[in-house]
């Protein structure tokens, strides 16, 4: 179940002469996926970048020394590689050696990996992103009808593997995730001086899901300057907790050109931050909650099914809006996201006049499966 869509993709890249990099938030199942994939292989060495012993091993080490430490290992797994200083340069040394060892590095944040892995390993790596479990993976696991029946629980508790596999214990697990794991890399980052304000910022973002986000407004709410707010948001993105959706603008002067919405990769994390696990039928924020679920699941679906599209929302100064837009293959696709299947929604004449030929669809629980499994 965990990593079902990545399993064969990664397995097919083994021993093709490049480092494999698997990135994603903590606790999404990266290590579990690799253990499943490699359980019948011999000579596999597991190293944990969170451990001081592993960090010391890689510090200023030459390729010869590292290869000697690896011994007879054919596959070396380096978990939480971002915790190791200059890890990109060390992996480059291994990649450039004559060794036939396959190195697989996992990372739960990209503010280290982006600088220290991506640049030194240009042309020397395969990189894949892993998310919390997806609607598509769960459909593959136990069928579409059952997963659709589970939607009310999914939009409240989300898709983190431990949450999904421990029905009845969701709230405790989500609290542990938000208290202990997800921010570990951010809070250990040397320039984060206000962890309490980071939590305040996260709660503010949780309340503004589905709405246009103003860094100026957030800075006032959190008593931080604009630059610090934007930096914290960037770090939260690089730890795969949130992501931005930019505004779409091409033809009209009154379109918002530099706005953004911010979504959480997982509904359960969002709800844990505001301590609200009420059922969908009694929630005042069900529209925003459903929108977060649909957009985040579409991000997973596009990544796993290799749909190369640009994603946006659209809004004008007159408050005309489209929840979600995709641009790909020279065509625009517009989507309104509604929890109530009986809600009527249409494109505004302003948009259709400016962008004729745009496909349009309303995404409700009744149409979700076709939207995510296409």
What keyword list fits this structure?
five-stranded parallel sheet, four-stranded mixed sheet, 374 residues, alpha/beta, 44% helix, 19 helices
Number of helices: 19
| Succession of helices and strands | HEHEHHEHEHEHHHHHHHHHEEHHEEEHEH
The number of strands is 11
Helix content range of the residues, please? 40-55%
Shape: globular
Tell me about the largest β-sheet.
5 strands, parallel
Class by SSE composition: alpha/beta
Strand order of the largest sheet: 2-3-4-1-5
Whole-number radius of gyration? 22 Å
Binned strand content: 15-25%
Mean pLDDT metric: 89
Could you tell me how far the N terminus lies from the C terminus, measured between alpha carbons in angstroms?
A: 19 Å
- Tell me the quaternary state: single chain
Low-confidence runs: none
Give a verbal description of the structure:
With 374 residues, the chain is an alpha/beta fold. Helix content is 44%, strand content 17%. The chain has 19 helices and 11 strands. The chain has helices at 4-11, 30-38, 52-58, 63-70, 87-96, 110-118, 135-142, 144-149, 151-157, 161-164, 170-181, 184-187, 195-207, 215-222, 226-238, 267-273, 286-304, 349-354, 368-373, and strands spanning 19-23, 44-48, 75-79, 102-107, 125-129, 242-246, 260-264, 310-315, 321-328, 331-337, 359-363. It has a 5-stranded parallel sheet, with helices on both faces. A 4-stranded mixed sheet has the order 8-9-10-11. A two-stranded antiparallel ribbon has the order 6-7. Helix 14 crosses helix 15. The longest helix is centred in the last third of the chain and has 19 residues, at 286-304. The model has no long low-confidence stretch (mean pLDDT 89).
């Amino acid at each position: 179940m965990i990593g079902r869509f990545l399993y064969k993709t990664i397995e097919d890249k083994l021993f093709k002469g490049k480092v494999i990099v698997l990135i994603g938030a903590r606790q999404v199942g990266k290590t579990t996926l690799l253990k499943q994939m490699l359980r019948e292989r011999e000579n596999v060495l597991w190293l944990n970048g969170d451990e001081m012993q592993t960090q010391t091993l890689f510090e200023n080490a030459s390729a010869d020394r590292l290869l000697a430490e690896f011994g007879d290992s054919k596959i070396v797994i380096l978990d939480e590689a971002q915790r190791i200083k200059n890890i990109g340069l060390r992996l480059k040394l291994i990649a450039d050696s004559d060794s036939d060892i396959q190195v697989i590095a996992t990372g739960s944040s990209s503010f280290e990996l982006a600088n220290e892995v991506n640049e030194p390993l240009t042309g020397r790596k395969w990189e894949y992103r892993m998310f919390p479990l997806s609607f598509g993976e769960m459909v593959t696991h136990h069928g579409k009808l059952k997963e659709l029946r589970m939607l009310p629980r999914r939009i409240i508790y989300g898709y983190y593997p431990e949450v999904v596999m421990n029905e009845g214990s969701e709230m405790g697990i989500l609290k542990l995730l938000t208290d202990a794991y997800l921010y570990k890399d951010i809070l250990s980052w040397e320039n984060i001086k206000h962890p309490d304000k980071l939590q305040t910022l996260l709660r503010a973002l949780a309340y503004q899901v589905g709405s246009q986000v103003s860094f100026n407004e957030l800075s006032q709410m959190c008593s931080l300057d604009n630059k610090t707010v934007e930096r914290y948001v960037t770090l939260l993105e690089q730890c795969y907790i949130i992501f931005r959706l930019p505004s779409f603008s091409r033809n009209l002067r009154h379109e918002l050109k530099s706005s953004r919405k911010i979504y959480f990769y997982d509904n359960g994390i969002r709800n844990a931050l505001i301590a609200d696990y009420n059922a969908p039928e009694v929630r005042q924020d069900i529209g925003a909650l459903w929108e977060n679920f649909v957009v985040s699941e579409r991000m997973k679906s596009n990544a796993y099914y290799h749909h190369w599209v640009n994603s946006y929302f659209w809004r004008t100064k007159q408050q005309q809006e489209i929840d979600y837009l995709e641009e790909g293959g020279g065509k625009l696709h517009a989507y309104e996201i509604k929890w109530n299947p009986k809600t009527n929604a249409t494109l505004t004449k302003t948009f259709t006049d400016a962008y004729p030929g745009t496909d349009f669809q309303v995404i409700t629980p009744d149409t979700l499966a076709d939207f995510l499994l296409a």
